[in-house]
Amino acid sequence: MKTPRIEINLGKIAHNAKKLKELYGSKGINVIGVTKVVCGDPAIAEVLVKSGINILADSRIENIIKMHDDDIHAKSLLLRTSLSQSELVVKYTNISLNSELSVIKELSKYAEEQGVIHEIILMVELGDLREGIMPSDLENIVNKVIGLKGIKFAGIGTNLACFGGIKPNDEKIEYLSSIAKDIEKKFGLTLEFVSGGNSANYDWFISTKNVGKINNLRLGESIFLGCETLERKPIPGLYTDAFTLIAEVIESKIKPSLPNGDVYQDAFGNTPKFIDRGLIKRILLGVGLQDVLVSGLTPLLDIDILGASSDHIIVDAKQTDLKVGNTVEFNLNYGALLSAMTSPYINKKYK
Ligand SMILES: *Cc1c(COP(=O)(O)O)cnc(C)c1O
Questions:
Q1: 249 and 206, same structural domain?
Q2: Which of the residues 157, 195, 197, 204 has the least number of beta carbons within 10 Å of its own beta carbon?
Q3: 86: domain CATH number?
Q4: What is the set of active-site residues?
Q5: Helical H segments across the chain, by residue range
Q6: 5 lies in some domain
Q7: Is 219 in the pocket of ligand 1 (CB under 6 A)?
Q8: Could you identify the atom of ligand 1 that is nearest to the CA of residue 130?
Q9: Atom number in ligand 1 closest to CA 198
Q10: Each residue of 14-64: pLDDT tens digit?
């Protein structure tokens, strides 16, 4: 079998998706499946749809087109829009998250041209300081958006715990609810989406007495890795090991633990420091930083990752009897999963 490879357990992903849909659904919250960490992989997208997820979201239009071309039957939502992609966005997606009027005007132009209605969700900035309209500017923007042809103002949303690491707590989410109420009242409409956040909203959801007007969450990491994302705690009843990275031992020798010679920069411009562990069993794995965020890997054997270069991971194999040609398995965090799924050098194997 080819190495390096990532083994993808579709049954575990289906289980997680169903459980989360059931959990959030119990308080009236619909789950959108976010496929960006798996690069819109159509086999995985299909599993989400079969598990009852009816909207798939991705940040990359390329991934959405890939799922569209593979006949994935779900509504599609683009998480990140831009002026230059507007024509494609209207052509391939039903809904998009937006925070710039100039982009929405461009979407309107193409929606009219293509004879379709494009739904937009306006993102509201609640302190994490990535995308979003400042709350004080929102009414003004809504007022302009509802007049645009080809556009349906479908809702509002927020995104926390991504750039600023800001926790979606009761105060933040109640604020979003109250903004939704004000907008509905002021403009005499019903918002189809009040999208309260992402996998980081788990603790809020479990502890809150009242979800207010929140009827939607956009979930990626908790479906794929089975954890919430404020502290990366596993969510009870979910699998945290749906993905496994498998690398091959390409060298295995007893060598010193300290490099020998004058120390200068390594391959990435850092000046390395090493601890003397005496003679150790060192192995090289045929996978490196060009393939995966090595710092996000956890070996499933009792071995230590000493470092990595573009094409190698260097390991203290400790008491294991790993030989050339053997394989080593790793669990992956979000960054490692994202990079491994993106690397064309890593084989994808579905189980
Ligand atoms: C990535 C992303 C999500 C999903 O985040 P997870 O932490 O993977 O659940 C939701 N909303 C937006 C806007 C995103 O960019």
A1: no
A2: 204
A3: 3.20.20.10
A4: 36
A5: 10-25, 42-50, 61-69, 86-92, 101-114, 135-145, 170-187, 202-207, 221-225, 334-342
A6: no
A7: yes
A8: 13
A9: 9
A10: 999 999 999 999 999 999 999 999 999 999 999 999 999 999 999 999 999
